Amino acid sequence: MSNSDIEQQLYEIYDFQVSTSVISKVTDKITDDIIAWQNRTLDSVYLIVWMDGIVFKVRENSKVINKTIYIAVGLKTDGKKEVLGLWLGKNESASFWMSVLTDIRARGVQDILITATDNLNGFTETITNVFPESKTQICVVHQIRNACRYVVWKDKKAFTKDMRCIYNAPNKIAAEAALNDFAEKWESKYSYAIKSWRDNWEELTVFFEFPLEIRKIIYTTNLIENLNGKIRKYTKNKLSFPTDQAVMKSVFLAVRESTKKWSMPIRNWGIILNQFLTIFENRLKL
Description:
- By secondary structure, this protein is α/β, with parallel strands linked by helices.
- It has 14 helices and five strands.
- Helix 1 packs across helix 2 and helix 4 packs parallel to helix 5.
């Protein structure tokens, strides 16, 4: 709720008037919690880190502009998920993600085994500059959406059905054969869609290097997008935020509420942990 919303609610329910400036001072108490949380020490190793951005409208210099909250969620060595931090910047860019990753490293993270991201230009290079051994998987769902942008409505059903053969293939060799079949059918009509697959092929197919249980949790950024959806649920009544601090307070509280149930390891954790220990035996010590 905005300060004016809180003022109105207090008046309607309790017939008690509190000014928005007083309400702002009260809610500012959360700022110390945000600073402490944003600067806490992190684990030295994360098995997977999912990264994504969520856009909000924020007032700046008498204008309402788009700003991005950058979010990183890590899978810890005990199988539990953890939001590593929230960072506010302008339009999502690889250069800003560099500062995010540098901050994560400065707070104690020495290694990330796998990163799962959207296909933002330059993102993979940014990650390897900070965590050179990390494997980066581009989100297949983002790729499907991007490819479909070039396709007319009447072709989309058949087009997406044929694409499914690529990412549902049993291995990378079969996926490459499926991509060639897909290109043979559609390239003359939608060359840019095919090009987007080929340009990102190595990062799109990293998940084929891993067993099925790990594939399922890295080939999309659905986990972090689900979190973004919950954040939207808590902030949807705000068309825009008056300040950077206001959007950070709201998103921080939404994250804190949305992650209260993150107390158990992810599904099939025992199997997944053994797979990670086998694949990354030189980098993962419990």
